[in-house]
Amino acid sequence: MALLSRQQIQNADDRKWEDVPVPEWGGEVRVLGLNGTARNAYEASLVQLGPNGSVQRVRLDNATARLVALTLVDENFERLYTDKELAELGAKNGAVLTKLHQVAQRLSGLGKKAAADAEGNSEPEASDSSTSD
Prior knowledge:
Radius of gyration: 16 Å
Structural class: alpha+beta
Number of domains: 1
Number of strands: 5
Order of helices and strands: HEEHEEHEHHH
Number of helices: 6
Strand content: 15-25%
Low-confidence stretches: 124-133
Helix content: 40-55%
Largest sheet: 3 strands, antiparallel
């Protein structure tokens, strides 16, 4: 396999998304995995650092809804919820939010399972046809 150029990397559409059935809401939603910058910002939003740079506090308030809000998109890949609408989304069914959060984590490379997959320490999952083309 040939080495890629910078331009080839920049031109590659490496987005991952999945359309997820949500019968509780009467349809399906599209979950788009976070890009590297957005993923780092989300992870940084979960902690508050102290003056010496160590973690002072973990901020889990509305963390599930925050990730779901960052990753729910329409057919044009535009976000459905803004940061200001987090409380509105967070008021929805917790089980649905958890399901969507798990999809968002997987697509964004977040969580313990994603870390294990990256290190090659987990069993491969069966592929599913609902992931992006």
